[in-house]
Amino acid sequence: MNINLKQKLLALMLISASWWGHAEVAVVVGANSPIGNASSDDVVKIFLGKKKDHNGTAVVPVDQAEGNGARDEFYDKIVSKSASQLKSYWSRLIFTGKGQAPQVVGGDTDVKGMVASNPNMIGYIDAGAVDSTVKVIFKQ
Fold first, then answer.
1. How many angstroms separate the CA atoms of 2 and 112, rounded?
2. Does residue 58 come out as left (phi exceeding 0), alpha (psi in the -120 to 50 range) or beta?
3. What is the pLDDT of residues 45-78, one digit of tens each?
4. CB burial class (10 A; 0-12, 13-18, 19+) of residue 29?
5. Closest by alpha carbon to 120, among 103, 107, 98?
6. CATH architecture for residues 25-139
7. How many CB atoms are located within 10 Å of the residue 46 CB?
8. pTM, two decimal places
9. 25-30 and 53-54 as β-strands: parallel, antiparallel, unpaired?
10. Domain residue spans in the chain?
11. Could you tell me if 47 and 102 are in contact, meaning their C-beta atoms sit under 8 angstroms apart?
């Protein structure tokens, strides 16, 4: 194999790896929830405990467990906080009694089950996991 072909294959593999490494995240509610579309700012405030309702409807955020790709992508790309920044943030709020972190469930399937059964819950999942049990209110 000549060097030029090797370089092209390597470049193609790197591009493919970077494409696969950036999954799209969808913020979802139950299919029958009255909660409507949200902005990025709304979503950030809801998941950081700064906003308890959206357009007059109470909202309860549901978080994915640490180590899930959707969680990493959500907090990195949408909330702009690393895992350590997030832990520090919630530690401060919990210690001072000013807030409580969202309930943590397993992964995409668990989040879909939670939001589908409660019209006030809001969560995030990998966009590829969206189905008829949920509706997307924000997509990154």
1. 49
2. beta
3. 999 999 999 999 999 999 999 999 999 999 999 9
4. buried
5. 103
6. 3-Layer(aba) Sandwich (3.40)
7. 22
8. 0.82
9. unpaired
10. 25-139
11. yes
